[in-house]
Amino acid sequence: MVLCKTLRRDAVAPFLAELEPCIISMEACCGSHYWARVLTDLGREVRLISPRETLRQIEQERSQRRRGDLRGGWEANNAVCPSEIPQQLEIQAVHRIRQQRVANRTRLVNQVRRLIGEHGILVPRDLNRTRRNLSEVVDGPLGHFGELFVEMLRDIREVLTELDVWLAG
To answer: How far is the C-alpha of 36 from the C-alpha of 28, rounded, in Å?
Structure first.
């Protein structure tokens, strides 16, 4: 390790632009790929370190109390060049968002099943059957359902429809 300095976020790029070209190792985190691109544009070689390796190293340093001796060899052995380009990061983001929307739909369907079940209508764990039963309650006569309850179920049905359209597209 040649330099270890704490900087404010807006001071990082200007500070490193003044230094001679070098290898920069940093822990991989939510902003590390952005910084890797910024620093690469400044002519620096950037290596990202797995957070697990960082934690493991910190624990090892605490137990052995030889911080300087361990860090240099560890960084050389565990730092890797960032391989994820912006398009790959975008694809990962799309997958994460899709997973979240699927989870939201599942949560809403389970909520509808419970709410309708409290009124004696048991719905099997099936998305299509839940939709069908939800439509029967929302579009049918109020019967023993209150107006507020049915209105809430209409809102849930709209959200489910929007999620279905988004997931199908």
So the answer is: 10
Segment 45-63, tens digit of pLDDT? 888 888 777 777 777 766 6
Per-residue pLDDT of 143-154, as tens digits, reads: 677 889 888 999
Question: Are the C-beta atoms of 98 and 167 separated by less than 8 Å?
Answer: yes
How many of the other CB atoms lie within 10 Å of CB of 82?
17
**Considering its fold, how many domains does the chain have in total?**
2
Answering whether pTM is above 0.70, one says no
Q: Does residue 99 form part of some domain?
A: yes
Task: Report the candidate in 160, 162, 24, 33 with the shortest Cα–Cα distance to residue 92.
Answer: 33
Question: Among 32, 60, 83, where does a domain finish?
Answer: 83
Beta-bridged to residue 49, according to DSSP, are: 27
